[in-house]
Amino acid sequence: MQGKMKVAVMSGIGKMGFEERDIPVPADNEVLVQLEYVGICGSDLHYYETGRIGNYIVEPPFVLGHEPGGTIVEVGENVSHLKVGDRVALEPGKTCGHCEFCKTGRYNLCPDVVFFATPPVDGVFQEYVAHEADLCFKLPEKVSTMEGALIEPLAVGFHAANQGGAHAGQTAVVTGAGCIGLVSMMALKAEGVSKVYVVDIMQRRLAKALELGADGVINGKEEDAVQAVIKLTEGKGCDLVIETAGSELTAQQAVHMTKKGATIVFVGYNASGMVNLPMSLALDKELTMKTVFRYRHIYPMAIDAVAAGKVNLKGIVTNIFNFDEIQNAMDASVRNKADIVKAVVKIKG
User: Fold this and answer.
1) 83 CB burial (10 A radius; 0-12, 13-18, 19+)
2) Is the pLDDT of residue 290 over 90?
3) What is the pTM of this model?
């Protein structure tokens, strides 16, 4: 397909604009996708506000966005499992395929991954993208392309649940009720965890957690979260904590609210990069601590869970912005974090 497309670019900190670029030509192993929805991730907002995350520094003009869903409009010569008209969710990271991590199935740890919207690689706040066909997953009729865009954060939630060995009979706590906290809660429920409680300090987010299936919520601003969990578990403590808030306080609380032999999965990034933990207590409890970096082998499972009605992915969306409103979409998401739980950008239509 020849022609031009509209691309939203970050031209500086807190500044968005548009450029016209050539529609990409798919390689033999790629498909060309007309994007319909792209989610706004916390990392997009961080790049937008500060221009960097750790050693990844934005050099404008830069394209944000790595949570895409859309429809295939062209297929490469060697692609046989997808066709024009298929609606797909796009896994945003291309890996090398030959390092020790790729060869052992832990491809999310590939040191040479090319990931949408991780500098210097452009993201997908644009009308079309050419992407490796094996990283484009066909959506069932029951799953919309907006839900397809949100498979990316849901994959993080399922990976966190898997890292924690989530299973029936457990009581779990999710600290943080932002997008990743909410999808982690839904992933835990989908995997059969018996009781899932969510902790946050923003009441609207806690209300959203209840709406989406949490068994109970705890407002950490109004009560002691550790004592609340101890009370809810009749003094035993919980079996599993998924820590998505990324704060030192919630990380420390996770150690205190767990029972002996429990597991803590750290998902949220701390702004300083350093966290002090009560290690003597962690040792006494013989806790297992796991971490999460993106996900691996999750998209088919996540799509099936949405199609089966086990995860209400549409329910996390609180705001939909048109593509032309990209500046307002980013600004509002930065200013109003208490009310905007998850925003998506409607690229087409």
Assistant:
1) exposed
2) yes
3) 0.96
